Amino acid sequence: MTAPAKLIDAAKSLSFTQGDDTWRELRSRAENSLYFFNAVILGFADVFALEEETHIISHLFMQRTTGIPEIDTAPVQLCMWPRETGKSTCGTVGRSIWWACKHPNIAILIANEKEEIAKNFVKSIEFHFQSNALLRALFPEVIPPDFNKVEWSSTRATLHRTTGRPEATFDCTGVGGTKTGTHFDVIIGDDIISKEAMESARAGNWSLMERANRWVNQSKPLLSNAGNFPGFP
């Protein structure tokens, strides 16, 4: 899975032309490896210790290519990582961008216990499509020609598409929020159970846990027929 050094150097220096052999190789690698996409295209390996020996298995799980059908086809995923190891960065932000580059007509809902944190994920995603030169060069077809003429706000963002579906490419909500009349291909629940909820449950008060469970059950009908629900507690 390790990319040749010259390929990484070409990516970081943008020493290619759209459509040439290096461009096609980089794009193919990015499309087929979520780890490569996160580490190199989005540059997360320069931000924290994103290394193959510690992160490749979790990335294969998230992109559903473990080779185990029961795992790769499961409609619901649960990812549990130690704190400060890139769970939200790779699994929520990075994977959402990766999905959208591969499937620009997709609709993804990102949820967090607090709506404000979910909004921050959308802002991070928007940053890459607006400012990441490597991402923009490898996937020019998904970049809106004019960000002022598409839905592009603190809560919702829509890429350049080939369909006119009403849902945004990226949407967000807090636990308890509603999205009436919309259907999503993916719903990502990132830290939907807060530390407060866990502490309350330990003390015998399950109201916050029950609220989160109700929200999950009420959100399932928002999924399209082939949709899936990855979760990050």
From TrEMBL:
InterPro entries the UniProt entry points to: P-loop_NTPase
Name by which UniProt lists this protein: Uncharacterized protein
